[in-house]
Amino acid sequence: AEPAAAPRADSLRALPFADFYRQVFEAHPLARQARLARDVARQELQVARGAFDPSFQATVDQKAFLGTTYYNYAEAELKIPTPLGSDVKLGYERALGTYIAADRRTGNPLLASANPGIVKLGFSVPLGQRLVTDERRVALAQARFAQTVAEADQAAALNKLLLDAAKTYSAWYEADRRRAVAREGVELAEFRQRAVRARYESGEAAAIDTVEASLEVQRRTVQRLEAEQAYNGAALDVAGYLWQPGARRDDAVPLELAPGTVPTALGLEPEPVDSARLPGWLRRAVERHPDVLKVVGRVDQAEAQRLFVGQQMIPFAELSLNSVASQRDLPALTNGPGNGGFNRDNYVIGGQVRTPLLFMKERARFRIADQRLDQQELELARARRNVTLDVRQAVFDLSTTYAVLELQRSAVAQARQLLRGEQRRFENGESQLLIVNLRERLVLDEALKLASLEAKYAANRAALAVALGEPGVLPAP
Predict the structure, then answer these.
(1) SS3 call for 172
(2) Residue 383's pLDDT is what?
(3) What is the DSSP letter of 268?
């Protein structure tokens, strides 16, 4: 008969894989660094939006000599950029003094009371090169796409971190199962050693059988010690992934595994893979995988740059139109048009045009931008193909592991059945202790294979999550 397996006192302190996975996702420094990188990209977007921030500027320029005021200029302007590339402007000018330029006069240059200044209201609009896009709009678009790239980089970093963590956990689980199998082997060998010694003392067994039993105990004790050593190393590796946030935002406190904490396959019970879910998984991966999103962001950046460079092959032209009114006449606006204030006879208009003749530099830059866009589009096609293959491979590995796992469970049961039969034959004097030990070794070897497959199944579940680009969620098979 076999000894009853002793209940594990530490089984109540199990650390489920899902809990470990979630803690790594939320608190590991590398995961937090990835989120900080995403926050930096958001601030870069805010910097780009600053190009559309309304601005105000004012200048005062005065000169006096020997009691004479040569000039006293005062100017102020409020400029409001618009997303269409034009700027709305509201300005104020006043010029005083004995010696001022005629075109800058705003009233009687010698009397402040008769020179209230003028107010300008107008806009400037591009007519050529910057009509479709310009530096501000391109910078804003580039920043938006850079945020997409940064978020994809964050997800990719989490992918790698969580896949490594899952493999570490599966190695810990396998080491724990090997340790349990090794302990069971020692218990069985010691139980049989006591039984063989009792049979020898009663004259039912040869003395050589006690040597065989003692050697088997020593052999399995060595295996148990090796399994304990491997388990301790695996537990330390797992502890390296356990963190919690500190009191400050930039703090991270490492955690230790509590004494007696063990892994468990709770929540990772093997289930057959539903092949009908594969098309949906492929569609999600192609749309959401960080490797794909990262390249999509770069494609968008390349398209924005190509559009901007293409605009530079159009002559630059800009029109500026301002309606002006005396500060004293502004109240007349309330009396209706034509009664003073802004009207069609008071205006300032300007424009400028400039263009190269051959566009040599612009044409070369456009070809470079066009080729870079082609490169990114080819990279996007490659990324989508690789993601599709990774998902298919992950599903294939998971389904294959499940099938092999079921076969291995049957192999363990059959090995135990052979052991029980051989044990009865030995007790009836029809077999030898060596054969019983060989049967028992077969049981232990098959149990170790089963533990390895269970750990592999857990890692394959995480690999499927990573292949789908959703590392924070373990997909159900």
Answers:
(1) helix
(2) 92
(3) -
In angstroms, rounded to a whole number, what is the distance separating the alpha carbons of residues 423 and 320?
Answer: 102
Distances (CA, A) of 357 to 121, 158, 240, 360: 35, 52, 65, 8
CA 106 vs. chain centroid, Å, equals 60
Q: First-to-last CA distance in the chain?
A: 40
Residue 47 phi, psi (nearest 5): -60, -45
Based on the number of CB atoms within 10 Å of its own CB, is 56 exposed (0-12), middle (13-18) or buried (19 or more)? exposed
Q: Which of 151, 35, 155, 243 is nearest to 471 (CA)?
A: 155
Q: Which amino acid appears at position 354 of this protein? A: R
CA-nearest of 240, 258, 264 to 168 is 240
pLDDT score of 193 more than 60:
yes
Q: What are phi and psi of 455, to 5 degrees?
A: -65, -40
Q: Supply 286's token pair.
A: 């192609």
Q: What is the pLDDT of residue 336?
A: 47
Short-list 43, 55, 93, 48, CA closest to 73:
93
At 374, the amino acid letter reads D
Among 419, 470, 467, CA closest to 188: 419
For the chain, how many residues are written? 477
pLDDT tens digits, one per residue of 82-138: 887 788 999 898 888 888 888 788 877 767 666 678 888 888 888 877 777 778 888
Reported as a pLDDT band with limits 50, 70 and 90, residue 358 is: confident
